[in-house]
Design brief:
Structural class: alpha/beta
Largest sheet: 6 strands, mixed
Order of helices and strands: EHEHEEHEEEHHEHEHEEEHEEHE
CATH superfamily of the largest domain: Periplasmic binding protein-like II
CATH class of the largest domain: Alpha Beta
Number of strands: 15
Strand content: 25-35%
Number of domains: 3
CATH topology of the largest domain: D-Maltodextrin-Binding Protein, domain 2
Radius of gyration: 21 Å
Shape: elongated
Number of helices: 9
Length: 274
């Protein structure tokens, strides 16, 4: 049975992704921080883990890129889900009864417009969406609401007071599946995540982008991160899709020649259209 690490508890969006990706027969290990999650995989206490990596509204979760790189984890898959936030509370409660609504900072940010219509409610940042729902149910907290998924409301027996309260309705999050062991580069893999660093030369990044173009690789994301040890120098993390393994191998060879360092974070199946 797969030992899968998730950020948050049962009912969280990470839990949903784990079930959708691996199926029901998984052994879940719950962590309230990404650091703990990533270390559990690096230390081989868990075989794989689910990590949110970017949101269509809020952008990249940059610390997670750094964790994957620092602990030499490998990306073996990805999964996209719609994030639909529900306001929930103990059965019998109304919105007017709520004094506090707690949730993950990202959820609060994505629902900011909704709460402008309810200025008497104090918004409180917490570690996990589902954990707040669980705590409300466990302690029978009547003046507190949670922002979480429909699944969390069902799991913890809470009543949904208002549906889909996120400001932008088309709200997607991309999750990556990480492991200590990379996938074999087979014909089904059609996406790669790589990291490279470049010298301070005019056009050095353009050279890399031209290599991708010439090798028929499609750049789907680029993200820069500072190299902590060297002020004002950056590494680049990119995702690229490809049709043939030979094209990827050719591109990697050329990038290795033109960059100061190159690291393949993983090759896996593109899941954006699922």
């Amino acid at each position: 049975m797969n030992k899968v690490a998730i950020q948050g508890i049962k009912g969280s969006y990470h839990h949903q992704v784990a079930i959708n990706y691996f199926g029901e027969k998984v052994e879940l290990f719950e962590f309230l921080s990404f650091d703990e999650l990533a270390n559990s995989i690096a230390n081989e206490n868990c075989s794989s883990g689910i990590m949110a990596i970017e949101n269509s509204i809020a952008g990249s979760i940059i610390p997670n890129y750094a964790l994957i790189d620092k602990l030499n984890l490998k990306i073996i898959g990805e999964y996209y889900i719609n994030i639909n936030h529900q306001l929930m509370a103990i059965n019998g409660s109304k919105i007017e009864d709520l004094e506090i609504v707690a949730s993950h900072p990202m959820a609060l940010l994505q629902c900011k417009k909704f709460f402008k219509k309810h200025p008497k409610i104090t918004l409180v940042e917490d570690k996990d969406t589902a954990e707040v729902a669980y705590r409300i149910q466990r302690d029978n907290i009547k003046n507190m609401g949670a922002i979480a998924s429909v699944y969390a409301s069902e799991l913890y027996g809470l009543n949904i007071l208002s549906q889909d309260i996120q400001t932008i309705k088309n709200n997607e999050t991309r999750f990556v599946v990480v492991s200590k062991i990379p996938l074999k580069n087979n014909s089904q893999n059609d996406k790669a995540s790589i990291k490279f660093s470049l010298s301070h030369k005019t056009g050095s990044l353009a050279v890399i982008l031209n290599i991708l173009k010439d090798c028929n690789l499609n750049l789907t994301k680029i993200q820069s991160l500072p190299i902590i040890e060297i002020p004002w120098k950056y590494s680049f993390f990119i995702d690229t899709t490809y049709d043939l393994n030979e094209n990827l191998e050719k591109a990697l060879k050329l990038i290795d020649e033109k960059s100061e360092s190159l690291k393949v974070l993983g090759t896996y199946q593109n899941n954006i259209n699922d």
